[in-house]
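Researcher: Let's do a round of design. I'm pasting the structure tokens now; please hold your answer until I've finished.
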């Protein structure tokens, strides 16, 4: 389904700025017809209110996901589409369900449990994070590489 790899970076903002990360993200789903997704990204904010921008290899914006309490929107190709939840928005943008809320915790170094997912934070200090979803099937692998 989706494979995201590359280089990404965690910018350490001042204490009163929103957290911000950038780099490459990849998702691979090992289904009968394997699917993958890969993009550059910028992620800022929190699970409650934030923004995820996805970029193509040439640096053009593919999509921008924006959420806040009671609102989740996908901005792509000059269109804005509302969604009922952040989970539905992320699945539409990437082609697979992803634990975006937990991703914030993982990037902060907290191994938040998500049913079916296991995050490997052992290389986070070098800007690499991997998470594996075993349930529900098919198996999916999420990779994040942060810019240096």
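Researcher: That's everything. Go ahead.
Model: Designed sequence:
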């Amino acid at each position: 389904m989706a494979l995201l790899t590359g280089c990404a970076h965690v910018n350490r903002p001042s204490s009163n700025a929103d957290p911000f990360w950038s780099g490459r993200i990849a998702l691979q789903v090992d289904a009968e017809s394997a699917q993958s997704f890969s993009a550059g990204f910028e992620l800022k904010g929190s699970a409650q209110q934030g923004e995820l921008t996805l970029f193509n290899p040439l640096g053009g914006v593919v999509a921008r996901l924006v959420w806040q309490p009671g609102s989740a929107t996908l901005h792509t190709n000059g269109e804005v589409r509302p969604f009922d939840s952040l989970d539905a928005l992320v699945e539409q943008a990437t082609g697979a369900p992803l634990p975006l809320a937990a991703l914030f915790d993982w990037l902060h170094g907290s191994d938040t449990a998500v049913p079916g997912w296991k995050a490997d934070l052992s290389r986070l200090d070098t800007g690499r994070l991997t998470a594996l979803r075993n349930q529900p099937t098919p198996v999916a692998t999420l990779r994040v590489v942060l810019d240096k």
